[in-house]
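Methods, example record. To illustrate the input and output format used throughout this study, we show the complete record for Glutamyl-tRNA amidotransferase. The sequence lines were provided to the predictor; the line carrying structure tokens was produced by it.
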Amino acid sequence: MSLKDKIDADLKASLKSGKKDRLNAIRSIRAALLEKEVSIRVGGTGSLSEEQETEVLVSIAKKRRDAIEQFTAGNRPDLAETEQSELKVIEEYLPEPVSDEEIVATIREIIAKTGASSMKDMGRVMGEAMKALKGKADGGKVQQVVKSLLPA
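The corresponding predicted structure is encoded as:
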């Protein structure tokens, strides 16, 4: 079952169950996927690859995290709570996150493969790491690990 089919099925289930927060989150996911699909359309047809779907989900999850941070800082716990519940729904569709140990192991492999020897090579290592860990690890966490493993 493709992600789009799964989202459509979950949308129907949410409509029947009457869970408003879940319904809103699924609608926003569906809208973001449709928007991306339309933007890549050539000749009237087009569909998203699995990687592109993951990119869209990562993007909207990041927006939710940023909104939660801002609402919390702005003393709006009610809005932060709404964003948090929508983020939980979005995370259901994302690939399983990798552990810190797996991030470190992946980055060590990339450093060895690219021959990175100092912080000058950080851009190259980050590019490879984000390709390998796309949707599975937070970019900030990956950056911290890369900085800790590369000598100054």
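Annotations derived from this record:
The mean pLDDT is 87.
The helical segments are 3-17, 20-40, 50-73, 77-93, 100-114, 122-132, 139-149.
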